[in-house]
Amino acid sequence: MAAYVSRLNHIALHVANADRIALDLVAKFRFKLFAARKTAGWRQLALRKGSAVFLVNERLEEEEEKKEKKKKKGWNPGVTSASGSADDDRSSGTGGGGSARADSTCLYGAQPSGRVDTACNVCFEVEDVHGAFSALRERGCRFLVPPTPVEDHEGLVLYSVLKSVVGNVCHTLVDRTGYRGDFLPGFREVRGIGDGERAPEGGACSVTHFDHVTYACPRRMTPEVMKWYEGNFGFQRFLIGRNEDVNEGFVLDRDGIGLRLTAMEFWKCSESGVKLPFRNDQEPDCKFVIAESLPHQGPNQVDSFLEQHGGAGIQHVGLYTQDIVSTARTLAQAGVQFVSPPPAYYSQVGKQQEILDAGHDPQLLSQHGILLDTDLRQDASGSTPRLASGENKRYLLQVFTKPIFTEDTFFLELIERRGASGFGEGNIRALWRSVQSYMEGEGGDSPGRGTESVSVETGQR
Ligand SMILES: O=C(O)C(=O)Cc1ccc(O)cc1
């Protein structure tokens, strides 16, 4: 292993209209806009829910970019006065690892080449950016940004950006241990946008962290992706289902479903550098899932993603919630649209009982399209799964949203785990069918389309 990942810092989205996506995340998904930044050429908005952070990037139009650059000319890099313009990029950085100096082109990421909205950077915290850079480069990794110090009045971070083998996905590696600020140098704090504002009164939304990131990849690419993450970051494979073949992955290949899934996770295998994102040391692990389509089962969501996205990438991100029913209700009331499972899902033999046995109300689950899968596997490690008292079964609840971008290039998922750490076969089938029926039937009314644009910073339409 070349680099020890200590935690996931944020996931970056590159979109044509940052206000619209940020507004959806605030008003519908109840994220809080907590930091913002405008540099020459870019607008960046950081939103948080629990420890899940999205950094929404928008490329500025040329005119605006010129204006920003002009503004910069009169700017004194040595001055970090809080009285500066709120939009000023008051950070400093170099492109080459020397002493820090002003550089407004520091994006903490890379500029994607495609034209569609995309989630394309998973930023990891590491303890030794220089060490990771040397070791990863030695292993043949391609770096887009060498180790670069950036600082403001709250301290200094060191970051570097490398390309993954998955389409346009990059990884920013950042060491934040020398930084006291809330996010990254150059971002100004934003107060009062989100966390209840613009959201329905009283609704619960207990999203705590990113549960998983799912990549959509071309056929037969999985071994290369696995090898890359195992060799470079020490990720470890874990088996999704009972019927999974170690070499083939978890394969669903009949009744119109042609899907190969393979999953891996990072923190448990890190030998050093482990730093927990939750103060109480209850580290949630973020999993990475690789989805490939299989031939012979017709047009499908993975191929459609690859086509619209222009190659492999992040198809969706799972948001962990402690109470999926109330979270889905709150989000639905706020305007989030979820895909629906096939009507027969809740009436299939045994499903109602399975839901009741898990202590849930089938009516409530069906109202929000929430799927439940009981994990029938024995715990191979012999360890006791973490279950609430009175529960004797491990199960998993999931629901997918409709795409949140204009194209079908990204959606979110709510997931609640009750002792089940993998992905249930029944749920995967139903999720696949939910997305297929959305794509085939009602592709025109996704929430991403035609939403009013509102300036998140000014709150004005
Ligand atoms: O269950 C999950 O969250 C998965 O990630 C499995 C999955 C992956 C891709 C699909 O198009 C449908 C289901």
In total, the number of strands is: 19
How does the major sheet shape up? 10 strands, mixed
Order of helices and strands: EHEEEHEEHEEEEEHEEEEHEHHHEEEH
Query: What is the oligomeric state here?
Result: single chain
Q: Give the low-pLDDT segments.
A: 74-90, 94-102, 269-281, 380-390, 443-461
Catalytic activity: 3-(4-hydroxyphenyl)pyruvate + O2 = homogentisate + CO2
Family: Belongs to the 4HPPD family.
Keywords: Iron, Metal-binding, Repeat
Cofactor: Fe cation
Structure overview:
This protein has 461 residues and is an alpha+beta fold. A ten-stranded mixed β-sheet has the order 5-7-8-9-6-1-4-3-2-10. Strands 11, 12, 13, 14, 15, 16, 17, 18 and 19 form a nine-stranded mixed β-sheet that branches. Residues 74-90, 94-102, 269-281, 380-390 and 443-461 have low confidence and may be disordered. Helix content is 21%, strand content 31%. Strand 8 (155-163) and strand 9 (170-175) form a beta hairpin. The termini are far apart. The radius of gyration is 22 Å and the shape is globular. The chain has helices at residues 18-28, 62-73, 129-138, 222-233, 301-309, 324-333, 351-357, 362-368, 425-441, and strands spanning 5-15, 32-39, 42-49, 52-59, 92-93, 118-126, 143-152, 155-163, 170-175, 188-194, 207-217, 236-238, 250-254, 257-265, 287-293, 313-321, 371-375, 394-400, 411-418. It has nine helices and 19 strands. The relative contact order is 0.15. The site of 3-(4-hydroxy-phenyl)pyruvic acid has 14 residues, from strand 15, helix 5 and helix 9. Residues 7-176, 209-368 form the VOC domain. Its cofactor is Fe cation. GO terms for molecular function: 4-hydroxyphenylpyruvate dioxygenase activity; metal ion binding. Residues 452-461 have a biased composition (Polar residues). Keywords: Iron, Metal-binding, Repeat.
